[in-house]
Design goal:
Bound molecules: pyridoxal-5'-phosphate
CATH class of the largest domain: Alpha Beta
CATH topology of the largest domain: Aspartate Aminotransferase, domain 2
Order of helices and strands: HHHEHHEHEHEHEHEEEHHHEHEEEH
Number of domains: 2
Strand content: 5-15%
Number of strands: 12
Helix content: 40-55%
Largest sheet: 7 strands, mixed
CATH superfamily of the largest domain: Type I PLP-dependent aspartate aminotransferase-like (Major domain)
Length: about 400
C-alpha cells in the first residue's frame, strides 16, 4: 500500500524536520512563483553580486579543463591553492597561516558547517551577535548546540559590545561567531571594537572565535580588520573567507579558512566523509582569483558604493522606515517596527515585520527578507546587489505600498 505524505514525513529524521528552511531562499522562491504567474517582481532578497566573474579567473578555469584537472584533489585543496590563500591572508589581512592550516570547501557555507560539526557537542552554546546570517543558526542547531544571540539595534549600528559578550559566556560556550562586514546589517567592526571583544575572549580558553570575513572586499571604510591579528586570541581564531562575494563567484563554490592546526585537521576529516573536496576546476580558478589582480573586485566595490548612496537616499524618503548607514557588504537593514499593527487597504492587520514583508511582496512585488530570519524582529533586509534602475523602481513601489498603510 502507498504511504500517505503525512506518514512519509514522519519517516524523516528529527534533524531535518526541525531544520528551518533558509528564509532568503524561501523569499526568492516565493518571488519566482509570483513571477511565473506574470507579476513583475523585483528581487532584493538574494545575497549575490549581479556581476560577472572576472575574465582572468574564467580563463584560468578554461585552461584547467584543457590541462585535465579532472581528478579528485587533496581534501583540503591543492597545495598551490593553500599557498595562494596563505599569500592572500598575509597580503590583505596580515595573518600568518601555513598551508597546513588552510582548508578549502564547497563554499564558505561548507567551511562553516564543517566547523560547527567539529567544535560543537550537543548541549554546547555558540554566541552570535544578532542579527546574524541565517545559516549560522541552522548549522549550530544541526550540531546539537544552541544559539545565544547578543541583541543589537539600529541605534548602535547593530554591533555587540564586550559587556554583552562577557555576560553571555557560560561554561558551555564553545564558539563565538560573527561576520564583519555583516550579513544582514552591513556593519563593520573596527580594530578597536575587535580589541574590546578580544579582551573578553582572551579570558576564556575554551572558546574558538570564528570570524567570517567573506564580505571583506566590500568594505567602504577601507579598513578591514581581522580579529586573528590580535595577539591575545590569535591562536584560537578561525578566519573564514570565500570567493562568492568579492569575486562574483557564487556558483563556483569555493570557501576557505585559516585555522589552528588541530581544527584544520578535524575539518579535513569531516569533509573527507562528506564532499571530499571542492571542484578541481574551481580550485585552479581560485588561484587566479586570489592573485594580485584585484581591479575587477575594486570596480565592483565602487558600484556597490554608488548603489548604497542611491538606496539610502530613496529609503530615507519613506516615512516610518528607520535607516542607518551600513559600512560594508551590499545590504541595508532598515527598522520597520513603526509599521507593525498597521492595516492594509484591504483591511488586514500586519502583526509583524514578517507580515509586512509578505505584504510588500504581494502588493509592491518587491522581495525582501524579514529580520526574524536573522534573529531581529524589527527589521528587514534589502540586498542592493541589483541595477540602479531596479533599486529606484523597488523603492518607489515600497514607498507607495508603505504609504498606503493606516
Ligand atoms: C555571512 C556569510 N557567510 C558565508 C556565506 C556563504 O557563502 P558561500 O557558501 O557562497 O561561499 C554567505 C552567503 O550568503 C554569507 O552571507
Amino acid at each position: 500500500m502507498e504511504s500517505t505524505i503525512v506518514e512519509q514525513q514522519n519517516l524523516l529524521s528529527d534533524r531535518i524536520q526541525n531544520m528551518k528552511e533558509s528564509a532568503t531562499l524561501k523569499m526568492a522562491a516565493l518571488g519566482r512563483e509570483l513571477k511565473a504567474k506574470g507579476a513583475n517582481i523585483i528581487s532584493l532578497s538574494l545575497g549575490e553580486p549581479d556581476f560577472d566573474t572576472p575574465q582572468h579567473v574564467k580563463d584560468a578555469a578554461k585552461k584547467a579543463i584543457d590541462d585535465n584537472y579532472s581528478h579528485y584533489t587533496p581534501v583540503p585543496g591543492y597545495m598551490d591553492l593553500q599557498e595562494a590563500i596563505c599569500h592572500k591572508f598575509k597580503r590583505d589581512n596580515n595573518l600568518d597561516y601555513t598551508p597546513a592550516q588552510i582548508v578549502t570547501s564547497t563554499g564558505a557555507k561548507q567551511t562553516l558547517v564543517n566547523l560547527m560539526l567539529c567544535l560543537i557537542n550537543p548541549g554546547d552554546e555558540a554566541i552570535l551577535p544578532a542579527p546574524y546570517w541565517v545559516s549560522y543558526e541552522a548549522q549550530i542547531l544541526l550540531a546539537g548546540g544552541s544559539v545565544v544571540g547578543l541583541p543589537t539595534s539600529i541605534e548602535t549600528d547593530f554591533k555587540a559590545t564586550p559587556e554583552q559578550l562577557e555576560a553571555a559566556i557560560t561554561d558551555k560556550t564553545r564558539v563565538f561567531l560573527f561576520s564583519s562586514p555583516c550579513n544582514p546589517s552591513g556593519s563593520v567592526y573596527t580594530k578597536a571594537e575587535l580589541e574590546g571583544l578580544a579582551e573578553v575572549l582572551a579570558k576564556h580558553e575554551k572558546i574558538t572565535i570564528v570570524a567570517d570575513e567573506i564580505y571583506e572586499h566590500i568594505n567602504f571604510t577601507d579598513q578591514h580588520a581581522s580579529i586573528g591579528t590580535i595577539e591575545s586570541v590569535k591562536d584560537r581564531v578561525v578566519t573564514v573567507n570565500g570567493l562568492s562575494k568579492g569575486f562574483a563567484m557564487t556558483g563556483w563554490r569555493l570557501g576557505y579558512m585559516g585555522a589552528p592546526l588541530w581544527i584544520a585537521k578535524a575539518c579535513s576529516k569531516m569533509q573527507g566523509q562528506f564532499t571530499s573536496a571542492t571542484c578541481s576546476i574551481t580550485q585552479r580558478a581560485a588561484i587566479a582569483a586570489l592573485g594580485d589582480n584585484l581591479e575587477p573586485t575594486y570596480a565592483m566595490k565602487e558600484s556597490f558604493l554608488k548603489r548604497r548612496a542611491l538606496i539610502l537616499e530613496k529609503l530615507r524618503e519613506i516615512e516610518g522606515l528607520e535607516v542607518n548607514e551600513p559600512q560594508g557588504a551590499f545590504y541595508v537593514f532598515p527598522s520597520a517596527k513603526s509599521f507593525v499593527g498597521k492595516t492594509t487597504p484591504d483591511g488586514q492587520t500586519l502583526n509583524s515585520v514578517d507580515d509586512l514583508c509578505m505584504h510588500i511582496l504581494n502588493t509592491a512585488h518587491v522581495s525582501v527578507v524579514p529580520g526574524s530570519a536573522f534573529g531581529n524582529e524589527n527589521c528587514f533586509r534589502i540586498s542592493y546587489a541589483s541595477s540602479e534602475e531596479n533599486l529606484i523602481e523597488a523603492c518607489s513601489r515600497m514607498k507607495a505600498c508603505l504609504g498606503a498603510l493606516k
